[in-house]
């Protein structure tokens, strides 16, 4: 059976060598062999994970540890180049989400599992804690409501503090009251992804970079994936249909394509639109504190959450570097082509510095 599979794959055009060499060398195709339709080769496989960000890596690792054969398709040249490497690297406690919501449940449980994983795999992290502050009297009731929400979600150790106590903890901070979340922390996301990647590969996961899922269709209650080499999409403008270079027919598909996940799902013919959540795009920018040899903060410092976000905040990385941000700019004009190809404008918007209120003395006014 293996010999016939290899012979079948060797008949395929060399221009499709990226995935085919992987299928041949690792023999991840199922025992039913390969076929073709309209000259496009087709392969049945076990599991396909779309996207090699932190979610895709974690899913691939878990599936492989469960004994599944996993192929990860990543359109970029390496792992973690999207939103997995564009974030505050904060381990959240689970304070903000509605009680009993899936987000609240996953955040609290995920935080516990993440700390455990980081400790067991020597991934740099630090449970430094977070202060959420009220700077005006009208914000104090909201801060108490936030504390009660966190308690309902099962977040332990929450403490309501007077502003003077918060200032003793953070001399550059001025506020009326602060909510201390001691279980919040930070993590080195690149080290985390490297660990997940290494474990997945060591247990048999196969990674194919520069490989884009351009769409798919449902056939016999299974999702067929249309794939192409990423370089063939460089000049695509959406005005002509994309033709697959190969079709994969997995038993299981996980769409972890980050910002491109919703628009990719729309390209799966036969998938009901009602099951595809809407996408609301926003972008944000950070300021980095420089010209100081001593980090002025020891904790994460957050304002009360606002509509659409948790506010411009102070975060630290594991080297003690301070970042202010991100602010939030809602984006209305992302077209499906840009979203699908993961082409987003990351330039700093004008007037960005007005989102922050920082005194020359580094006293932070949130």
Automatic annotation (TrEMBL):
Pfam families for the chain: DAO
Keywords tagged on the record: FAD, Flavoprotein, Oxidoreductase
Coiled coil: none
Keyword Cell membrane: no
Obligatory cofactor(s): FAD
Domain FAD dependent oxidoreductase: start-end pairs: 46-340
Gene3D superfamilies associated with the record: D-Amino Acid Oxidase, subunit A, domain 2, FAD/NAD(P)-binding domain
GO molecular function, one term: (S)-2-hydroxyglutarate dehydrogenase activity
Catalytic activity: (S)-2-hydroxyglutarate + A = 2-oxoglutarate + AH2
The protein's Enzyme Commission number: 1.1.99.2
Membrane-crossing segments per the record: none
Top enzyme class: oxidoreductase
Family: Belongs to the L2HGDH family.
Listed PANTHER family: L-2-HYDROXYGLUTARATE DEHYDROGENASE, MITOCHONDRIAL
The name this protein goes by in its record: L-2-hydroxyglutarate dehydrogenase, mitochondrial
Lineage: Eukaryota, Viridiplantae, Streptophyta, Embryophyta, Tracheophyta
């Amino acid at each position: 059976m293996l010999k016939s599979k290899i012979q079948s794959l060797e008949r395929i055009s060399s221009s499709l060598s990226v995935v085919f060499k992987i299928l041949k060398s690792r023999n991840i195709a199922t025992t039913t062999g390969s076929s073709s339709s309209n000259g496009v080769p087709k392969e049945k496989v076990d599991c396909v994970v779309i996207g090699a960000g932190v979610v895709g890596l974690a899913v691939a690792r878990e599936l492989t540890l469960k004994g599944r054969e996993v192929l990860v398709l990543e359109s970029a040249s390496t792992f973690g180049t999207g939103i997995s490497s564009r974030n505050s690297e904060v381990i959240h406690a689970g304070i903000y989400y509605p009680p009993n919501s899936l987000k609240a449940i996953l955040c609290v449980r995920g935080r516990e599992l993440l700390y455990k994983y980081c400790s067991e795999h020597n991934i740099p992290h630090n449970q430094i804690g977070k202060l959420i502050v009220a700077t005006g009297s009208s914000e104090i009731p909201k801060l108490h409501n936030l504390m009660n929400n966190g308690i309902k979600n099962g977040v332990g150790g929450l403490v309501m503090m007077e502003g003077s106590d918060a200032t003793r903890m953070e001399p550059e901070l001025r506020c009326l009251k602060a909510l201390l979340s001691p279980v919040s922390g930070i993590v080195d996301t690149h080290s985390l992804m490297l660990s997940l990647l290494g474990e997945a590969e060591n247990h048999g996961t196969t990674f194919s970079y520069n490989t884009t899922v351009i769409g798919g269709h449902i056939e016999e209650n299974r999702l067929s994936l249309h794939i192409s080499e990423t370089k063939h999409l460089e000049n695509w403008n959406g005005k002509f249909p994309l033709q697959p270079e190969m079709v994969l027919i997995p038993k299981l598909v996980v769409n972890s394509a980050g910002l491109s996940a919703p628009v990719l799902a729309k390209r799966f013919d036969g998938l009901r639109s009602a099951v595809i959540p809407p996408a609301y795009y926003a972008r944000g920018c950070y300021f980095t504190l420089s010209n100081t040899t001593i980090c002025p903060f020891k904790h994460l410092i957050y304002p009360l959450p606002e509509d659409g976000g948790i506010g411009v905040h102070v975060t630290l990385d594991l080297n003690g570097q301070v970042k202010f941000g991100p602010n939030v700019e809602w984006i209305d004009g992302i077209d499906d082509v840009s979203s699908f190809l993961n082409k987003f404008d990351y330039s700093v918007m004008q007037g960005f510095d007005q989102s922050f209120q920082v005194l020359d003395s580094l006293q932070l006014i949130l």
